[in-house]
Design a protein that fits this description.
This protein has 99 residues and is of the alpha+beta class. 37% of the residues lie in helices and 31% in strands. A four-stranded antiparallel β-sheet has the order 1-2-3-4, with helices on one face. The longest helix is centred in the middle third of the chain and has 23 residues, at 53-75. The relative contact order is 0.19.
Length: 99
């Protein structure tokens, strides 16, 4: 995982997660949004040429962002709005980019 541009509005995620394959230079971006109609998290790869990794990446991001949403729900938005708390939650949900 290279980049996480994810915001939480009213406890619902919106943004994207970008993966870069080391050595090959391939990049895949997975968009994240909350479906208000079905009240569920949606994660979908934006590049149609990803191939068989598409489903794996979407499930991986859904799991990570789901962990982040659960942490926000348990802590409460009032606590998680500070920068330090938000970064700690991202790290706990395994959404901190590897550098």
């Amino acid at each position: 995982m290279d980049t996480v541009d994810l915001s939480m509005k009213d406890g619902r995620p919106f943004g994207y997660v970008t993966f870069v394959e080391a050595g090959a230079g391939r990049e895949a971006q997975v968009a994240v949004r909350w479906d208000h109609v079905h009240d569920q998290l949606q994660c979908f790869a934006t590049d149609r040429n990803i191939g068989k990794e598409r489903g794996e990446l979407e499930r991986d991001v859904r799991h990570r962002v789901g962990a982040l949403v659960a942490a926000y729900a348990q802590l409460g938005l009032s606590i998680a709005t500070s920068y330090v708390a938000a970064e700690a939650l991202r790290t706990a949900a395994n959404l901190a980019p590897h550098r």
